[in-house]
Amino acid sequence: MDLTDSSVDLWIRCSGNDSLLQPLWDSMRLNYTDYLRSPLFPVVLTVSSYFVLCLPFLVCDIMGERWTWVQQFKIQPSRRPTASTLLHCAGVTLYNHVFLVLPASVAQWAWRPPVDLPDRAPSLLELIAGVTGNLLLFDFQYFIWHLLHHRIRWLYVTFHAIHHNYSSPFALATQCLGGWELATVGFWTTLNPMILRCHLLTTWTFMVVNVYVSIEDHCGYDFPWSTSRLIPFGIYGGPSKHDVHHQKPNTNFAPHFSHWDKIFGTHADFSFSAAIK
Length: 277
Known about the structure:
By secondary structure, the chain is mainly alpha-helical. Helices cover 65% and strands 0% of the residues.
């Protein structure tokens, strides 16, 4: 088989019924059926992903100036989280998950029947399109929510102010949220894949990706491999843009992309090179 035939075969498998993801999906649904069908699985997936994905950035914060090669990418190099701030954010996060997420998950487990696992996996292109579509929809929803909670003082003071205790964000501050905000974010994360009629594998992939990019936005580091540096044309905000939001709270309301802030005139740019001088 020549290179052309191989390319055509790969394209067909990416976009057609013979999915590259089928072996992975078969292994998951045949070996872990009871776990995957449980209504608790998405909650366990997102919560465990959050703490695991926070860990590398947390290590960078703890090591501090001892890792000079990492600290050159610190957006605000003169400001680092203290032990008390890390413990405070961890405490708020654990409190929200124990007293809000866990009861809601148990209620969902009791109320919802186990989900059916389809035989076919999504094609690779379907998964990528589904994850992208979910991120774009979530970006719009949270932009509107975020804008209103900054423009209406009662909403800000009552629900959102806790997230702005720190003008120099760090990974564990990602879910240092009020209960209302956490519930809203969880609701959209669960609802949007249903609206877009996504495959379960696409849904779970979106949930993990959404957790990661949210942590990355708050991590306080602008690494060369940051998502905003991998996506061209400045269409993705990333950690530097969200860092500006925590310094100038009336700018950069969108959680991921930049287009809504540019349309509504709330976009503020950031010079990474200036920040590290």
